[in-house]
């Protein structure tokens, strides 16, 4: 009876060792999968960070272009106003000259 109990215990021990090995294999596989997922997550986070950085750079470039455009537009408007004043002054001079010719022609 003791001998059969010893055999039963040894078989049970063998089953437990096999189950332990299976669980160890599963644990190793899960650790590998976890590492792979962590690597992929890290890559995605790096790509996201790079993408956000490139978007921020594009946004800054756009802002600079927008500021430059606004400054150029203001310059053009200012030049346009200056040109209007110069043309108005020139027109006045021509009108005065014309008036003086008319006056001279009438006399």
What does this structure look like?
The chain is built from one helix and no strands. The chain has 107 residues and is mostly helical. The mean pLDDT is 93.
Task: Write a brief caption for the model.
With 107 residues, the chain is mostly helical. The chain is 98% helix and 0% strand. The longest helix is centred in the middle third of the chain and has 105 residues, at 2-106.
The biggest beta sheet is recorded as: none
Total number of beta strands: 0
The proportion of residues in beta strands is: under 5%
- Provide the low-confidence segments as ranges: none
Mean pLDDT reading? 93
What order do the helices and strands follow?
A: H
Reconstruct the topology from this structure.
Elements (H helix, E strand, L loop, with lengths): L1 H105 L1
What descriptive keywords fit this protein?
mainly alpha; 0% strand
């Amino acid at each position: 009876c003791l001998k059969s109990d010893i055999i039963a215990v040894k078989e049970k021990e063998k089953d437990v060792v096999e189950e332990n090995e299976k669980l160890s294999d599963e644990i190793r596989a899960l650790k590998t999968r976890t590492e792979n997922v962590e690597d992929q997550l890290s890559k995605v986070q790096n790509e996201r960070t790079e993408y956000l950085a490139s978007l921020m750079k594009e946004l800054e470039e756009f802002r600079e272009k927008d500021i430059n455009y606004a400054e150029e537009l203001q310059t053009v408007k200012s030049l346009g106003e200056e040109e209007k004043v110069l043309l108005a002054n020139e027109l006045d001079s021509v009108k005065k000259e014309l008036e003086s010719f008319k006056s001279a022609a009438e006399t």
